[in-house]
Every structure is written in structure tokens, then in C-alpha cells.
Here is the input.
Amino acid sequence: MLFKVSMTVRLPHTMPAAEADRLKATERAIAQELQRSGKWRHLWRVAGRYANVSIFDVAGNAELHDLLLTLPLFPYMDIEVEALCRHPSSIHDDDR
Ligand SMILES: O=C(O)C[C@H]1C=CC(=O)O1
Here is the structure.
């Protein structure tokens, strides 16, 4: 199943820079591994904001939830999830 996931990062201003850098580096490694696995299909920065729009391809709601929980920045993100289905006018046969 495909999901559009919007994440807005809100790190506390009181967080030491070294801790923020450590979280971001770990997040990056996990995000890149999930992209290589095919589960995190698209990752786009929202211009002008510390936010992203992503497309995930996972078995269902529970897998998506468990996956998002593994992200080191999870406690510091507002996350919105929207389930997607194939558009009847889409010419792409990999849409599900
Ligand atoms: O920077 C972000 O948008 C938050 C998060 C998502 C992927 C990643 O590497 O960090």
C-alpha cells in the first residue's frame, strides 16, 4: 500500500547542537536504508521549511506505524499520513 507522509521537524531550541547532529545523522542512515529497501519510495524537502513529503510503500497501516516509530526524529516530528490508491487516469502501472 502507498502512503503519503508529511513530516515537520520541530527540534527543541534547548537541544544541544551535538545531540541534534547525532539524531540527524542516525535519521539519515535509517532513511537511506529504507529508501534502498524500496519501502521509502520518495523523499522530498518542502521548500523553505524543515519538513518533507514522502511516499512509503508498505504492507499496511501497522507496518507504516512501526517504521515511523523507528525514526530517531519521531519524537520531534509532526506527522500526517494519507493513504493513496491508484488514480484512474494514471499511466503508471506501478501505482497501487
Ligand atoms: O529532514 C527531514 O525531513 C526529517 C527526516 C526525514 C528524513 C531524514 O533524513 O530526516
Summary: The two ends are 7 Å apart (CA to CA). Residues 7, 9, 27-28, 31, 43, 52, 73 surround MUC (CB under 6 Å).
